[in-house]
Amino acid sequence: MSRIALALLVWTAALSGLAAPAWALTPDRDVAKMVSFGGVCVGCELSGRRLTGATFMGAKFDRSTLVGADLRGASFHGSSFVGADFTRADLRGAEVLGANFLNAVFTDAAMEGIAAHGANFQGANLQRARISSAEMSGANFGRAVLTGANLRGAELHGANLGGADASRADFTSAELNAANLGGGAFDSATFRGAELTGANLGGASFSRTDFQSASLQRANIRGVDLSTARGLDQDQINEACGDGGTRLPSGMVVRVCQGRGSNYMPPRPPAPPKPPAPPKPPRW
Question: Dihedrals φ, ψ of 224, to 5°?
Fold first, then answer.
């Protein structure tokens, strides 16, 4: 049997039963610990699989289905899951570095404590996802759907939420310093106690949004309609940079900054990771 044929045979066995996965050790049939995946498996069906602690290294799992999969503590390093379906999946404590989830689905997923610095969630559907206490600095959520998502205490420094729909999302105590919210929808969202230092709010909508105790130091609110926002006070507005187009609740006055005024510099959205190179056939 040739090396290529043998490699394909091992890979097929890994996906069919996870009893003898390629490049893996499986000490437990029910909970797949120390399982490593590489290579290409576009459109794979892994719904409901127990993959706790699994490692995806340079893997390409585009359009795969992982509905309800148990991925607690899993690692996604340099892997591609474009268009994959993680509906109701459990990714608590997962580590996502340089992974691409373009247009993926995370509806009702459990993502508490996930570490996803610089990950790409552009166009992803994260409706009602539970992402509290996540570390997602520099992550790209451009045009993503975050309606009703829970991001309490999440670290989103320099993250891109441009054009995202985060209506009714909960950003209580989240850290959004230097983040880009431009053009997004944050109607009825909650930013209580959130840090928005140097953030860009330009062009976004904030109807009935709660900003109680939020920090808006050097935040760009030029042209932003905050007239129906809740929890704002004059001290917060004094820290932000607005202009003649800024609309505020009755009785408040905006501070007009000269030139750029603030130290805000719009973050450059991270580029989607490059597709991983095909793995070399294992040596036998």
Answer: -85, 135
In a structure prediction context, what are the per-residue pLDDT tens digits for the chain, which is 284 residues long? 433 333 333 333 344 333 333 333 333 334 444 578 878 999 999 999 999 999 999 999 999 999 999 999 999 999 999 999 999 999 999 999 889 999 999 999 999 999 999 999 999 999 999 999 999 999 999 999 999 999 999 999 999 999 999 999 999 999 999 999 999 999 999 999 999 999 999 999 999 999 999 999 999 999 999 999 999 999 999 999 999 999 999 999 998 987 544 444 444 545 555 555 555 554 54
Q: With contact defined as beta carbons under 8 Å apart, do 202 and 224 qualify?
A: yes
Residue of 204, 210, 248 whose CA lies nearest to 231: 210
Q: Are 154 and 137 in contact (CB under 8 A)?
A: no
Q: State the residue for tokens 């609740």.
A: 249
Contact (CB, 8 A) for 121 and 140: yes
Kindly state the tokens that stand for 92. 């608590």
Between CA 46 and CA 51 the distance in angstroms is 9
91 CB-side CA count, 13 A: 29
SS (H, E, C) 40-86: ECCCCECCCCECCCCEEECCECCCCECCCCECCCCEEECCECCCCEC
Q: Residue 259: is it exposed, middle or buried by C-beta count within 10 angstroms (0-12/13-18/19+)? A: exposed
Residue 283 neighbours by CB under 8 Å, 6+ apart? 3
Q: Is the dihedral of CA 132, 105, 78, 38 positive or negative?
A: positive
Q: Which helix (H) or strand (E) holds 16?
A: helix 3-17
Global pTM value: 0.81
